Amino acid sequence: MDTRSKNPDCRRRRALAGPLTVVTGYFDVLRAEHARELEAIRSRSGAPDAAGTGAAFPGEVFDIHARARMVAALRVVDYVLIADELEPDALLEALRPQT
User: Fold this and answer.
1) Distance in angstroms (rounded) separating the CA atoms of residues 53 and 82
2) Residue 27 needs a FRET pair 20 to 30 A away by CA distance; which of 44, 53, 71, 73 works?
3) Distance between CA atoms of 67 and 30, rounded to whole angstroms?
């Protein structure tokens, strides 16, 4: 599956219209429960989902880019952002549409 279209940079995301639900996690070992949780979040919010993968950590099974590709392959996820250097608040600010 080609998941490149699910990996926008923050500048491109700002051009997208409407609200966005952002979910962060390491997703090192992707479980069926992750997909169910993401589907439930999407159902509650009614907005597209963006999953942000977290930074590298000791003992990780997959590197950050492999984790991003796995999450992007989920049908319920519309966008995947690699947030390895941004704190959650900084990531949200970078995604906020400019007015």
Assistant:
1) 5
2) 44
3) 8
